[in-house]
Design goal:
Chain lengths: 398, 398
């Protein structure tokens, strides 16, 4: 089976319909066996690439993220999702590093995904889109850096599903990655996480407006199902402590319960808001495909079930320098998952630092203002830059 | 507003349509202000009541439970939900104690709930049913023990929402309870638990077959929404460790992933089964009302926000003896919640034992074969029976 994609000149810049860059790349063979013809990749860059192309940092986004790391979001008008971490003078300093972020394969912000039109049918792919994997997402990113003439990324960094991509980069292309920072991630999706993903998918598929994935042709959106999926997932992004501190049992604009099913509690109102705003910016089928890619992620599986073997390279240890980060109150990707990755890296004597950041903000801490966390990233990158011999061209730098 | 219920002779036995006992009791005023006329209560009993009526144990069921503690379930044909704990020779020994369990008010197994017919309209109540509270459930149970001529329950015991009822019993009717065993419960529903309940309600309400609660009149059932609600809730009943041990990333009857949205993983298949079997036995509106009752539960709220004050009685400590039980891996009602109850009881110098059972089975441990847990319950009951002066009429007992 070959999935056809719009036939245009190879590597020609294209208009993806969104701000930022777009390019047609390919062909590329997916893990499922499908051969993709040329396909669009939408991406953003920040900072400038050094003449020796050694200062590129690939930022990998999470399930519901996108390429707009620092830009105002074109649909929600909210500020970029990682402005706490990335920018001039920030931990990932765009005065020093050239930051690239692609919308993932399967996404809905310009890169090929299930809502794009299948040239073979003239209709959106819907469920005709092939199931993709984290490795496929990374393959597409590799095509992009090849296109940009970047032989080696100085760093690959990301949280949650972004952290899965970071680990996959290090395993698939160890020579193309100098340093890797997987944050709040794991080397395989746990049974509990597969279970939560499945609840979200079932909520979407239960919505009659989903139409077996053909909702675009029907002129509708399965907004109720997608909202429920987002609500369930959103609970897992926060710690119990954070929810308690933020909302507790506080009532929403009322002094007493109403004995009804309105959102009496602030936490209900907040969740409903999370659900309803998400459906305005995200594609339900993309949600299915991307969660499936996470479920399938299991780095050890292709290495005899031994994770350490994934980090062997030419009979030695991986050349990639790792900084593995977890958050103490993250119950979706708990510290034990990161520790398992670190143990595997230690087993092959890889170069690895491991930091568990003490915070009560849960999984979402990777997106939030966490000074200790940002200091860790900045310090690790500065050390790696020295080893790599990157020039420090920041103003006032020695 | 008065909710009318079938006018029959007060306290007359009735046929609820289910095995076991039924009786019409009332009137009763609900927390929301609605006055219930006489209404049906369905209940089961096991063992026999001593002539002095001192050996009665009220078992309170959880959200999705019912009165069939030891009976084969009339719809699923599965064995009773607490056969591990209750029965001849078990921790709650029906050779010694007279066990009562009512279907909760708002339920769907014979006690008045939203699927019963509203005599005022001739139609099922649906959303016309008044919102009920845990205290209302307990009020209905108190009517039943009054009807049975039981002045004081020897013990009230239950897990999860059953444990909330236990605490409410002790607070509302301290003289009518000799001993209380709240298991895997809390004195107020947490923000995280309200959030999970809200996801379940939104899943049900998102189903077009819900018809704003009028689905019975439409001849349909919101089975997809209710299944999603059950799936999401079910994850919270298990620990991550238990899910991992039970399923891990094992595939369901296949040797490789299918690159599709079928239930590739056993955990997906298991969850789907949990969802689909639940809709066959449970009413979607009951699910809304019962989860709402849990959300509203906050014992401290009516006592100036000070939980200890809930356990003061006539200027002294509550006369009720408590055994508070939690499970180490329960993240829905974590040990910290039980400890807060214990601290409040200690603050008024109440008679309280506290046991955290070490188990990796999560919240559902209260339903499972956990020998240490059952020994705790048996020991506590035996001690209380001595204090209470209950005769030991078991065969071979001294």
């Amino acid at each position: 089976m070959t999935v056809q994609t719009p036939a245009r000149t190879a590597a020609a810049p294209i208009n993806t319909g969104w701000p930022g860059h777009g390019v047609l790349l390919g062909p590329m063979r997916l893990d499922c066996g499908v051969e993709l013809d040329r396909f669009p990749i939408a991406y953003q860059t920040y900072g400038s690439l050094d003449p020796d192309r050694a200062n590129a940092v690939m930022v990998c986004h999470a399930l519901s993220g996108d390429q707009f790391v620092l830009d105002r979001h074109p649909m929600t008008a909210k500020s970029g999702w990682w402005e706490a971490m990335v920018g001039p003078g920030k931990a990932i300093d765009t005065n020093r590093y050239f930051v690239i972020c692609t919308n993932v394969l399967g996404g809905c912000m310009g890169t090929l995904g299930p809502k794009e039109v299948n040239p073979a049918t003239g209709l959106p792919y819907g469920l005709g889109f092939p199931v993709i994997t984290i490795a496929d997402m990374v393959r597409a990113q590799k095509l992009l850096i090849d296109h940009l003439g970047i032989a080696q990324l100085f760093c690959v960094v990301g949280g949650s599903m972004g952290g899965m991509q970071v680990l996959q980069w290090a395993v698939s292309y160890p020579e193309a990655v100098f340093a890797a920072i997987p944050i709040a991630a794991s080397a395989r999706h746990s049974a509990q996480n597969i279970a939560f993903d499945e609840v979200g998918r079932q909520a979407i598929m239960a919505d009659p407006d989903w139409h077996a994935g053909d909702y675009i042709s029907h002129g509708v959106v399965p907004h109720r199902g997608l909202a429920v999926a987002r609500m369930a997932a959103h609970i897992t992004y926060l710690s119990e402590t954070a929810l308690h501190r933020k909302f507790g049992r506080s009532l929403q604009n009322r002094t007493a319960v109403t004995y009804g099913f309105d959102a009496d509690f602030q936490v209900e109102s907040y969740l409903r808001h999370q659900g309803s705003t998400f459906v305005d910016r995200f594609d339900a089928n993309s949600y299915l495909y991307i969660t499936r890619a996470m479920d399938y992620f299991d780095l050890a599986a292709e290495h005899d079930g031994v994770l350490a073997n994934a980090f062997r390279w030419r009979g030695r240890s991986t050349p990639v320098r790792f900084c593995v980060v977890s958050f103490s109150s993250d119950w979706l990707f708990p510290t034990a998952e990161s520790r398992a990755t670190v143990h595997a890296l230690n087993a092959v004597a890889a170069n690895v630092s491991f930091v568990e950041v003490a915070t009560d903000k849960g999984h979402d801490a990777f997106l939030l203002d966490e000074p200790q966390f940002h200091q860790v990233i900045e310090g690790f990158l500065t050390g790696c830059a020295e080893h790599r011999g990157l020039k420090d061209r920041r103003r006032g730098a020695a």
